Amino acid sequence: MSAHTPETIADRPDFSRFAGVRNWIFDLDNTLYPRHTNLFAQVDRRIREYVERLLSLPSEDAQLLQRDYYRRYGTTLRGLIVEHGITPDDFLEYVHDIDHSPVQPDPRLAAAIERLPGRRFILTNGSRTHAEKVMARLGLGPQFEDIFDIVRADLLPKPHPDTYARFVAETGIDPTVSAMFEDLARNLEVPKALGMATVLIVPNGTEEILAEAWETEGSEGAHIDHLTDDLGVFLEAVLRGIPTA
């Protein structure tokens, strides 16, 4: 594989880059818990319902507008703020009022995160309340120093560069000794440019397919250092592969 091609665990990747990492930054949804849990599908439905209610739109039109705002603004919330001047509190409370029970405890992941050397953070486009509920279901909490949510980001979502700049400024981290874990490739472009190691979390069973796609597409995946479909297993491999573990 080329230097810019993401490597899978099966390819025996070089984890030496992680030996110097002292800040471990995780996205929340579809990253700390697997995508097949479909938790975010509940949030997505609640967002559509909120748009329907706010703008008195049929469900189909609300869904189209929801997707348009997500594409143009990074989140539907940002689109509603810019286009309709809403305040975020009611939106965030409504869309995260979901059943979190599909998220199952993950002691393996919790143990791996606990062993990571240095500081650990969550950087999410969701709310702190939602993050805390997900973490409680997973068996996480004390492993993390802080949750940097969409409110802390002044409602400006990833991948906007200002969000990462605000996160770095508030936490005081050095990006060059940091690693970012995300389920959306576009949200890793800025972290990579800042000097972070980057890991893309993909749906179960797609790791090899995506690796092969990047292998043929060349530099399109240059901002992705590694990809995995199992975060816990990946972190265990990282811990085995770095001398500081």
Give structural notes:
The protein is of the alpha/beta class. The protein has two domains: 166 residues, Rossmann fold, CATH 3.40.50.1000; 57 residues, DNA polymerase, domain 1 (Orthogonal Bundle), CATH 1.10.150.450. 44% of the residues lie in helices and 10% in strands. The chain is built from ten helices and six strands; from the N terminus they run βαααααβαβαβαβαβα. It has a six-stranded parallel β-sheet with strand order 3-2-1-4-5-6, with no helix packed on it. Helix 1 packs across helix 2, helix 2 packs across helix 3 and helix 5 packs parallel to helix 10. The N terminus is likely disordered. GO terms for molecular function: hydrolase activity. InterPro entries: HAD-like_sf, HAD-SF_hydro_IA, HAD_sf, Pyr-5-nucltdase. It comes from Kaistia hirudinis. This is Putative hydrolase of the HAD superfamily. Keywords: Hydrolase.
